[in-house]
Request: fold
Amino acid sequence: MSKHTENSPAERISEANRHVLCPNGGRRGRADDRLHDECGVFGVFGHPEAATLTYLGLYALQHRGQEGAGIVCARDGHLVGHRGIGLVADVFKAHRLAQLEGDLAIGHVRYSTFGTSILKNVQPLMVDYARGSMALGHNGNLVNAGQLRDELEEDGAIFQSTTDSEVIIQLIARSKQPRFADAVAEALGKVIGAYSLLATNGETIVAARDPRGFRPLWLGRLGDGFVFASESCALDIIDAAWDREIEPGEVVVASEKGIEVMTPFERQPRKLCAFEFIYMARPDSVIFGRSVDAVRKRLGANLAREAPVAADLVMPVPDSSNQAALGYSHESGIPFDMGFIRNHYVGRTFIEPDQKIRDFGVKIKLNPTRSAIEGKRIVLIDDSIVRGTTSRKIISTLRRCGATEVHFRVSSPPIVNSCHYGIDTPNRERLIASSKSVDEIRKFTGVDSLAYLSIDGLIDATGYSRDDFCLACFDNAYPTPVPDDFACRQNNRRHYDLSTDHLTYDGAPAPY
Reply:
C-alpha cells in the first residue's frame, strides 16, 4: 500500500492548540460584516515542477481563502504533502517546497465556510485506504454532508476532520469501482450541493464540477501537461494556455493518456453563483464565460442608471468595488477618485492599543485622502452590505473628513439570506437587509441616500438569464433542498481561533 507523509505530529499539535471550542458553537473574533472568501483549487499534471507551479497558482488564488493552504504531490504514485495555517507564502517556505517532488500536484487555499480553521481541516485532505492513497481539495459546500456523515459513522466510518469534504473521501474509499475516476464519480453522485474539486491517487488527477455549476473551474495546458484552477488568473501566472472552463456536471481526468471527459450525472438546471461576479473572483479572471472586470463595470453602469444622483465624486470602498465605481463614474459622468487608500500589509490579526481609537479596525485598513473628500458630494460605491457596521464607520470617516453629502450605492441587491453553497455569510438574523428597510439602513449608516442594484440590473450586467444563477441570498429561492438542521450543524462544527479573538475586521486583504 502506498503511504503518504505530511506535517509532523508535533506540528499538528502545535497548530491545533491555537484553537478552542466556542461555547455557543459559533466563531468569535471574526467580524462578519463582509462576505468572506471561500476556497480555491489548483492542480498540475505532467510537469517536473508541479509543486512549485501549484504554489504559484495558489498565490494567485489567495483571495479565495486566507486561513490555510496545502499542496500534495506525487512521484511514482507516492503521495507527499504539506499543509499549514496561514497565507500561502507563510506556509510554503523554500525548504518545504523542496520536499515536494514529482510531476503531479494538487493544491488548495482555504477559508473555512464549514468546519473549523484548525490544521486537520486544511486541504488537500490525504488518506491511505484499501486501494492505496488519495488526496482531495474541494471548493464549495455540500448541503447533505451532515446526513451522509451520520450514515457513514453509523456504518463504522471514522472521521479525522470536521469539514464536509471528508464525506466525499469516505464515499470514494467505500466505492467498489475498480478505477479511481469512476469511484470519484460514483461518490459525487451521492452528494448534493456545490463542489469544484480536484482528487488524485498519485497517478491521475480527477477534476469535477457539480451539475449546477455553482463554482468555477478551469482547464489549462502547459507544454505536454495539464493545469486545473478555480480561476483563469491562476493559469496566467504560470503561462499556462487557457483551454476551457470545465462544464457543470463534467468529470475530467488527466492521465498519461491525455484528457478524458466524463458526464456521469443527471443533468440539472445551471445555477452559477452571482457573488462570484459581484465580489469573490479576481477582476482579471474570466469565469462562467465572462470577464469579471467587464461584468463589474456593467454592474456599476446599471447602478448609475437605476440610482442617479448629483455629486462631485465617485469613490469605491477598495478594492473589490473599484470596477463597479469606475462603471458608475463612466455612465454618470461624475469624476472617479480613490478617496480611500488601502493598507495591503495588514494581516488577519493585529493588536489594538489600550487607548481606544475611534473606528480603529477600519482605520488600520482604510485611510481617507482628505484632499479628495473635503467639501465634496460623494457617491460611495460598495459591492454589498452585510451587517452595516463597517459601512457605518466608513461613512462616519467621510463625514469627519469634510464630505458635504454621502450617497451610498451598492452594486448588488440586498442580501437577505445565508449562502449554503460555499460563501461564509452570517445567519439570516444578522444580515441587516433581512430585518430593515432600505430607508432604515440609510438612517443606520448615516448617508444622505442609499440605493441597491436591482436583481434585474445584476442579471443584465452578466449577459445571462435569471434562471442561470443561484440568487438565494437575494430572493430565498434555494436551488437544492436544504435540511432543516443545516445551519445548526454548520455552526456547531465551527471553532474560533484565539489569534483572531482580539480584533478582526473584514478578513485578510485580497491581493488585487
About this structure: Residues 316 and 381 are 5 Å apart (CA to CA).
